[in-house]
Amino acid sequence: MGAVTTRRGLLLGRRETRRRVLPPGVTLESLTACTGCSRCVERCPTHIISLLDERPTLDFSGGECTFCGDCARACPEPVFVVLGSTQLAHVVAVGDGCLARNNVACQSCRDACPQEAIRFRPRAGGPFLPDVNVDSCSGCGACMGVCPVGAIGITERLEEGVHA
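Structure for Ferredoxin-type protein NapF, as requested:
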């Protein structure tokens, strides 16, 4: 996963970048084989794959990755090299803007997580605080789209270079 400057940002002189979030089974090395045909985009049942600079990237704002493999089966090139992958190269991280961290009761991320990787631990004098079990987190993004304040981001897994 790397930061990519958008064309619009470049033309407008902005340094804002979007992070490339690789689909399951794609590595940075295999990404070079992508021709930008968009078959993976068309086949994704949750519509989270889009093209960024003619290469696939994931956007969890409207859905999650179900690891169905439709994108890999649709791709005519050797881009999806780790077949049957059920984990992405990142895990979620709950930021400071989280409602629960700001004394507002909210657990929508926990409710959306299919792996039950987000738990809330009690604290004295306020709402429970979110805690992400990175070993259980698949990086599917289910929690990101449901967060009412967009406080959930992603961070690399500890194993460098593994984008499975």
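Residues 3-74 form a domain with the Alpha-Beta Plaits fold (CATH 3.30.70).
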